[in-house]
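Shipment paperwork, digital attachment
Item: protein structure file
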Amino acid sequence: MRKVITKTGIVCSFLILALQLTSCYKSTKKTVASAIEVAEVIAPTAMVPEEIIYRSPIVFITGIDKGSAHYYEDARSYFKEKEYQIVEDQYSIEEIITWLNNHESDSYFGDIHIVNKSNPYKGLTLETVIKGEKVTTETLRKNITQGKLPKLKKVVAQNSKIIFHADGLGSNTALMKTIKDAFVTDIPTNIVASQYFTVFGGNYSEYYLAKPFYVFYPTANSPGKTDLSKEIAKKYPEEQEIQWYDALNNESERYIGEAYTIQFNIPVQYEIDFHNSDDEVPTITSKKELIEYLKQHNKIHTEFAKIGIEYSKFRWSWTVKNTRLIIKGKTTALCVLKPLTKPYGDLEHIKPDTSNLRLYAIN
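Attachment content:
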């Protein structure tokens, strides 16, 4: 009887042990399965980059040709032939940003061309805001600081470019930076411009770049082309290919790469009101006295120095109205343009490639 009980106890013990092992196995299996399920849930997924879709290039024609000029007309024809979208009647930074914002969509603007006939010594002819001051480093910064410009929406992407076709703008790093701030977005905006002159509608190319060389004289008081050719030759001794006298008498490119001259005026005006000043209105009797006065006036002298032209190259006039001294000056610039041509192979203009850092500055 005792043996039977002993055997029965042993069998029961094995059964209990078997049940415990089975339970542990199931529990372990369940825990492992749960871990796998959790791992599957929290497993990192590969980030799929956002597909960026760019629109076709657009062109803002920001001015109207006056007199016999045809800069904007030639630019319009060039870009129209390339089938770029032409946008007219936007004559200020404010209007351009507003237009871009009003045409926001799921795609981004790629190349945004802004055509503006500028004076390298006086900034752009483009307005800051509607009917506002012309764009210079100072006027544009003032409008940005005062919050008068709209903020550019998410209409450009990382590789978008805002390309200014404005003579010599690429050399004006301060203005380039200010323009970049005007078009600021959540990502850096690429502002592109050339340090050279942009020429549309040439005799041999519809679009090319040219290197400028300057000589100045008081407006309506030219010393003559012979003296001016000697002066400009002395100013640029490293340039040996240009026949300066011929270039100053040449108004267009008669063969590929030939230097020629364009002309424009650079006006300045200063107004000083002595109404609330302890100083009296100065008595000025000669141009020499006026120049000495301007040099001693710190604010005017600092502003004038930014132009980079000598006082003697301006024709000056001054008047006194009540307590105000009004000073006006004007110089005429003869700008010799040397078209950029390839240094090898057939004689032809260098193609204006906006990604070429030798031709364009990118800010």
